[in-house]
Amino acid sequence: MQYSGMSRNFRILTACALVILSSQPALAAKHLSMPEILSSSSASDWRPLDLENTLYVELPTGRVVIELAPRFAPLHVSNIKTLTRAGYFDGLSIIREQDNYVAQWGDPENCHPLPAGIGKVKAEFDSSLPPHMPFTRLPDGDVYAPEVGFSEGLPVARSGALHKIWLAHCYGMVGVGRDLDPESGSGAEMYVVIGHAPRHLDRNVALVGRVIKGIELLSSLPRGSAEMGFYTQNEKPLPIQSIRVAADVPAAQRSNLQVIRTDTPTFAALIESRRNRPEDFFKMPAGRIDLCNVPIAVREHPPL
Fold first, then answer.
1. What's the whole-model pTM score?
2. Which of 95, 98, 257, 289 has a CA 20 to 30 Å removed from the CA of 106?
């Protein structure tokens, strides 16, 4: 009887394992590396950037491409696009480069007047949890939130108890500077995370998107010597030649990029390949992964 019971339990466990395997195509590809997974991806695993919600930050050293997140911060994104189309950012500079933290630009001397209609907006630190938003959950938990994962190509955290979802401060994420007043950030001052993920800022600052390409142009700048990495008068900050909405840029001058979708079996396989690295170098796979360590692949795509 004992042997029969153990056999029945074994059959149950086996059946459960088969269900899990069939529901997680990523597990079938767990021995593939990230390059192998991407090389075998299909066209449907990739998406183009929304030109209306993409910014080109033109620096003397090259272009930084930012994908905005209007679903999470619609008021801030609207302000940023208004400021951009008014030429507000053109001629400003990177004013702060704090090691292992952020690169920031803005107009601390108030040399550029704000366009009409730009003012304080709601904090937008988080938003109500939509019932049907695509969400690829990471299986390994998180220190800062009940659940973390990816939605629409962005690292997000969420709480079912609070019915809230919010963007996470991972490397390359773009936020809006503010003062003590939670509603003091208009979008006229922005920063990019260039160091270890400062997740303590989650739900304290409005995140508005992430850098898709060109992050090295910001992360490699000389560090400011003043408090919090601000540049002094004797230091030469990097000027911003212009910021443009991609939809306003002639087609021949656009960056034709595609981003891996985060709601597909291919992305699930990519997560598993990073949780358990199959390359020969790794003798002891971690078996887990942090939200901000999951890479979001981007590729050049020729114009159609």
1. 0.87
2. 257
